[in-house]
């Protein structure tokens, strides 16, 4: 009995769940599904009333339904797709008028957030701004990825969104922060598509550092002017390509 107990105690413990190799393979399949579906969505070939079926996509991509389902759920969370119960997923619908209205609301909200942060001079806020400025200097040197690199393209845009989200978070108003995040989600697909059609890095990206440096210095008027330029350039691009 004691020998058996010792043998049991010395045996390697088995942890629940799949082996590491199986987990890695599942992650790879999920990433592949995400990359390929994102390419379909950003390609602009889907109409607002066209639905993406989990089953049909799995067959088209030659994959099981599990990684396709996870990729669709991720794209829905990112605001690029909308879930329709018992039907599937569709491109998040947004008319030109709604897009322009959403940009106007976003600008109003972000100006309020930036004004609030300009008046905060505590060490923690200034340190966060310094970190954002350093990150933005690095991002300025990164070219905008193409549609052939959908995950890199998403990451590039998320880095830009981080400037706006961090300023919103520093405002100290959780409702304001939440609504700015919602506006960014709502505008993500039209923003991605218009930038891809423009064929290069948007001029507005260069205003991010100007916004941050003005906020860091407490220059509210300059920060708001740069923020307006940042959003209005996007507005002009969207209106011009409609």
Chain-wise SSE layout:
Blueprint: H1 2-10, H2 20-42, E1 51-52, H3 54-61, H4 65-77, E2 81-84, E3 88-91, H5 96-118, H6 123-140, H7 150-170, H8 174-198, H9 207-217, H10 220-240
Antiparallel strand pairs: 1-3, 2-3
Helix pairs in contact: 2-4, 3-4, 5-7, 5-8, 5-9, 5-10, 6-7, 6-9, 7-8, 9-10
Describe this structure in words.
This protein is mainly alpha-helical and 242 residues long. It has 2 domains: 2-91, Arc Repressor Mutant, subunit A, CATH 1.10.10.10; 96-240, GntR ligand-binding domain-like (Four Helix Bundle (Hemerythrin (Met), subunit A)). It is 71% helix and 4% strand. The protein contains 10 helices and 3 strands, in the order ααβααββαααααα. The chain has helices at 2-10, 20-42, 54-61, 65-77, 96-118, 123-140, 150-170, 174-198, 207-217, 220-240, and strands spanning 51-52, 81-84, 88-91. It has a 3-stranded antiparallel β-sheet. Strand 2 and strand 3 form a beta hairpin. Helix 5 crosses helix 7 (150-170) and helix 5 (96-118) runs parallel beside helix 9. Mean pLDDT is 82; it is low at 1-16.
Q: Which sequence of SSEs, written as H and E, runs from N to C?
A: HHEHHEEHHHHHH
**First-to-last CA distance:** 80 Å
Q: Point out poorly predicted stretches.
A: 1-16
Biggest β-sheet, characterized? 3 strands, antiparallel
CATH homologous superfamily classification of the largest domain: GntR ligand-binding domain-like
Strand content: under 5%
Q: Class of the largest domain, according to the CATH hierarchy? A: Mainly Alpha
- The proportion of residues forming helix, as a percent range, comes to over 70%
Form type? elongated
